[in-house]
Design goal:
elongated, 6 helices, mainly alpha, about 200 residues, Four Helix Bundle (Hemerythrin (Met), subunit A)
Length: about 200
């Protein structure tokens, strides 16, 4: 076993461990919620898709040391860790801004407001952006382009479907959400978003 292969294995382990560790850290900061209907049909479907995307991405990360032709520069390892930390920080800020209205389930609680403070001032789904960043950072940590591409495709697609389902629910059931959605981007701030 060469030293370079050993380093690739270590960085891949850091990537996989970081991905699942980021989820664990994010959940440890989860606030007390008003209502959490994780059994809703739309939630069950998207959670299953996200779980499959996570495990596909982690599997590709674990196997990345054998894809020697797709190596990225060594700086991508530490950069990936920094992206993961930024993702966790963003998720914690988003959960704090929502307070008791944070939920893993797709639902609208009675009297729920449209939150426009904190990171919600700039994007409608900072929590999902944070999760994508955490997984992208994990993939970057492997210092290999294959996991980066697969993770962006798998995790990005799963979150796009989750956001589509949540947006339909919020536009329909949360007064004022459609107006808010017109002024903010889903995951990327709009140039004309209100300040």
């Amino acid at each position: 076993m060469t030293a370079r292969f050993f380093r690739d294995v270590v960085w891949s382990a850091i990537g996989v461990g970081g991905a699942f560790g980021a989820i664990r850290v994010m959940e440890s900061f989860r606030p007390e919620v008003i209502a959490d209907d994780v059994g809703a049909p739309g939630n069950t479907t998207s959670v299953g898709e996200l779980t499959r995307a996570y495990f596909l991405s982690a599997s590709v990360m674990a196997g990345s040391p054998v894809a020697t032709t797709a190596r990225l520069p060594a700086v991508s390892g530490p950069l990936g860790i920094a992206v993961q930390v930024a993702g966790v920080g963003l998720r914690v800020r988003a959960m704090r801004a929502l307070g008791g209205h944070y939920s893993r389930g797709l639902r609208v609680a009675e009297g729920q407001p449209v939150v426009t403070s904190g990171p919600y001032r700039y994007v409608r789904h900072p929590g999902y952006l944070a999760a994508v960043l955490a997984w992208l950072g994990a993939a970057l940590s492997t210092r290999n382009a294959v996991p980066v591409a697969i993770t962006l495709l798998a995790v990005g697609t799963a979150y796009r479907h989750r956001i589509d389902a949540e947006e339909a629910l919020l536009v329909n059931d949360l007064p004022g959400y459609a107006e808010y959605a017109a002024t903010t981007g889903r995951l990327v701030p709009l140039l004309s978003s209100r300040r």
